[in-house]
Design goal:
This protein has about 80 residues and is mostly helical. It has helices at about 25-35, 40-50, 60-70, 70-75; strands spanning about 5-10, 15-20, 55. The mean pLDDT is about 85. This is Integrase zinc-binding domain-containing protein.
C-alpha cells in the first residue's frame, strides 16, 4: 500500500498499480481496440498493460478471454498465439 493505493513489485522496475475489478474490462478495451488499439494478441496485450504500469491477478486469463471474444480479431486476425 502506498498513499491508499495497492501496488505490486515488478521485476522490470517500477511498481505496478493494481486495477480494481470495475476497471478491468475498460482497460482491456482501451489497450486492445480503443483509440490507438492495434488488436494485438493475448500475450502482447498482457505485456503491454504490465509495461504501462498496471496489474491484476487474472491479467493473463482476462487478456486471453478478451481477445477470444473480439469479433474483429476472429474475422480478420492472424492465427492465435
Amino acid at each position: 500500500m502506498y498513499e491508499g493505493e495497492l501496488y505490486r513489485n515488478s521485476f522490470e522496475g517500477p511498481l505496478l498499480l493494481c486495477v480494481s475489478q470495475e476497471n478491468i474490462q475498460t482497460m482491456l478495451y482501451k489497450v486492445h481496440s480503443g483509440w490507438c488499439g492495434s488488436h494485438i494478441g493475448r500475450r502482447p496485450l498482457a505485456t503491454k498493460i504490465t509495461r504501462t504500469g498496471y496489474f491484476w491477478p487474472t491479467l493473463v486469463r482476462d487478456s486471453a478471454d478478451f481477445v477470444q471474444k473480439c469479433e474483429a480479431c476472429q474475422k480478420l486476425g492472424n492465427a492465435p498465439q
